[in-house]
Write a structure and sequence with these properties.
Layout lengths: L7 H12 L3 H14 L4 E7 L5 E6 L9 H4 L11 H5 L10 H7 L2 E7 L6 E5 L9 E2 L5 E7 L6 H4 L5 H18 L4 E6 L2 E6 L5 H12 L1 H5 L1 E8 L2 E8 L11 E5 L2 E2 L3 H11 L11 E6 L5 E2 L10 E2 L2 H17 L20 E4 L2 E2 L15 H10 L22 E6 L3 E5 L3 E6 H20 L3 E11 L2 H7 L3 H5 L4 E6 L2 E8 L7 H15 L4 H17 L9 H12 L14 E5 H7 L5
Parallel strand pairs: 1-7, 11-13
Antiparallel strand pairs: 1-2, 2-6, 3-4, 3-6, 4-5, 7-8, 9-10, 9-16, 10-13, 11-12, 14-15, 16-17, 18-19, 19-20, 20-24, 21-23, 22-23
Helix pairs in contact: 1-5, 2-7, 10-11, 12-18, 13-17, 13-18, 14-16
Length: 593
């Protein structure tokens, strides 16, 4: 065949294959156009899962009658004009091909009105359209009706699923957009029935309510709210507590400048932040928003704009990872306070546990002392220094600590304690394991690692790409006690190893480090290996089940938990303590009924 230029219709249908793969894609593109037009109210009407009808109405700026024809042309947009505009994109859409692609595979009716002019309407039915515009009554804003999707491309229509499945995808798209556009109210109808209705959320309380309606109240109840900034980066949103994990990554939403994206570097950063506190193969939950200068991120790397590319991916990775680690570390006994957004304002660079600022200090709880604190602590400070740190004497005898005071030990495994809310149960081995682990990590970071020369240097053959990525980090690896040299294009020699890794599989570790650097431009394999060894040491050093503890020892462990990072979980992600309030106990025993 000779080279020939595609017809406009065929070119649009090919473009539609990249952008429009199912009704949910149409809904996404139309809602994003509405948001770019400054809409504060968007109504979505669906019939037969979107195959028969998709109608999106908004109250945005509208389109002038003279621009309606151009709006349906390929690569026609009002959002960018120059290369500088392309490098500073803050709008959700910018390519100007959505309406053209949609109109090429459906019967489309576009009706719009601006504040200055009357309403106008234009129709396209999958063929080259005659530029005929008719007057139409319409308030300020735009309505796009898409009927009979894929009516002229039956091969693609055969790939559509059942009506319920297609609507579920539409529902998920609306949910993802509603999570980021808090200032907009949404109404979603299916077959003339209102299915979802989200009101605009201005205050922090209202935003939390919207997140609860979209992700579940349980997520918000067990989430940590954070808002933190560094240089040009701002990270905010909700991260689920380690105990609120999932068996699959179905509750993970990440937005860059309001755009929902999937990024492997971000996922790696979140996973790394949770690695010390997540149990087994569970997945963390989060709704996070990253604000970054538009020139530092490229949003033009995916036809459907699902992915982005960061100019400084390692900087973004480390920022997200470290800030999430800080937020998770601050969740200790006593930070889980009553939900109250109105009395405690959220400020930049503060972390909120269970929707209350981490800087908030609850007022001292007055109670009848079951025993004298000073006497208990004095006895402890004279005995069993191996259990936990020595504790400072409390300034007053009438302040109840968050985990309360020990009452007894159950089967020499669990500590039973009483606080102002009710009963606290502590797994003493898991709790002490975390305390020991955090202390060992601190000691190790201060002393660093001692390098041990190898009698026979270890030669490892890698790919040339892996060696090129590894070589600039030889100095960094040396700080961990690992000395490497490059011998050829695809070979490195290990001459020294950290003393703690002398019995480990050094070759596999180096291969994993190189693979991580190639894939993510960052590696934590050395830290992970060290932490794994320290975790094993802490596990063996912690008090074992079946060991009897005295009341002072139990109280000392409770106090150490209150000042230890990540003390809610052991090194393997298991919970270390749980609580039952008096109200829950009364309910269990039917008291007051």
């Amino acid at each position: 065949m000779k080279i020939q230029k595609l017809t406009p219709l065929l070119a649009n249908q090919i473009a539609a294959g990249e952008v429009i793969d199912r009704p949910a894609s149409v809904v996404k593109e139309l809602i994003e156009n509405s948001l770019d037009a400054g809409a504060t109210k968007i109504d979505i009407e669906i019939e037969q899962g979107g195959v028969r009808l998709i109608r999106v109405r908004d109250n945005g700026f509208g389109i002038a009658a003279s621009d309606l024809v151009l709006a349906l042309e390929r690569h026609a947009t009002s959002k960018i004009k120059t290369m500088d505009d392309l490098e500073n994109i803050l709008s959700l859409g910018f390519r100007g091909e959505a309406l053209a692609s949609i109109s090429s595979v459906s019967r489309l009716v576009l009706t719009s009105a601006t504040a200055e002019g009357a309403g106008s309407e234009i129709t396209a039915e999958g063929v080259e359209m005659a530029p005929v515009i008719t007057p139409a009554a319409h308030p300020q804003g735009t309505t796009v009706s898409v009927q009979d999707l894929f009516y002229n491309t039956p091969a693609r229509r055969k790939f559509l699923r059942a009506e319920k499945t297609e609507f579920d995808h539409i529902d998920e798209v609306v949910k993802r957009i509603a999570l980021s556009a808090f200032h907009v109210s949404f109404t979603l109808k299916h077959n003339q029935r209102v299915v979802r209705q989200y009101r605009a959320a201005a205050s922090t309380v209202e935003r939390a309510q919207r997140v609860a309606s979209l992700c579940g109240q349980a997520f918000v109840d067990q989430a940590i709210f954070l808002e933190t900034s560094a240089t040009d980066l701002t990270l905010s949103g909700w991260i689920g507590a380690p105990t609120f994990s999932r068996s699959q990554p179905d509750l993970q939403y990440f937005y860059v400048n309001g755009r929902m994206v999937r990024d492997k570097s971000v996922n790696h950063a979140v996973r790394q932040a949770y690695q010390d506190v997540l149990y087994g193969d569970r997945y963390p939950t989060f709704v996070l928003f990253l604000e970054i200068p538009p020139q530092s991120v490229d949003v033009n790397v995916h036809p459907a704009k699902h992915e982005v590319r960061f100019r400084e991916s390692r900087l973004v990775h480390d920022f997200i990872c470290h800030r999430l680690q800080e937020a998770l570390a601050k969740v200790r006994p006593g930070t889980h306070c009553e939900h109250d957004h109105t009395t405690h304002q959220l400020e930049t660079a503060t972390v909120t546990a269970n929707k209350v600022s981490a800087n908030y200090v609850p007022p001292p709880q007055q109670f009848a002392m079951p025993f004298k604190v000073r006497e208990q602590m004095a006895v402890y400070n004279q005995l069993h220094e191996d259990v936990v740190y020595k504790q400072e004497m409390p300034k007053t005898e009438n302040v109840m600590p968050p985990l309360g005071f020990a009452l007894a030990q159950l089967r020499n495994i669990y500590i039973l304690a009483e606080n102002t809310q009710g009963l606290v149960l502590v797994d003493m081995h898991a709790a002490h394991e975390r305390v020991m682990y955090e202390r060992m990590k601190k000691d190790f970071s201060e002393k660093k690692s001692i390098a041990q020369p190898l009698l026979v240097p270890l030669t490892i053959q890698l790919s040339e790409r892996e060696v090129n990525a590894l070589e600039p980090r030889f100095i960094l690896l040396q700080q961990f006690g690992m000395t490497l040299e490059r011998m050829s294009q695809d070979t490195v020699v290990v001459r020294e190893l950290p003393e703690m890794l002398r019995n480990g599989n050094a070759e596999q570790l180096i291969r994993d480090v190189a693979a991580d650097i190639v894939s993510h431009d960052v590696t934590t394999r050395l830290e992970d290996a060290m932490d794994k060894i320290l975790g094993t040491m802490a596990c063996h050093a912690a008090v074992r089940a079946a060991r009897h503890l005295s009341i002072p020892e139990m109280n000392a462990l409770l106090r150490a938990m209150e000042t230890t990072d990540h003390s809610g979980q052991c090194n393997h992600g298991r919970p270390t303590w749980m609580a039952l309030s008096i109200q829950e106990l009364d309910k269990m025993f039917l008291r007051g009924r």
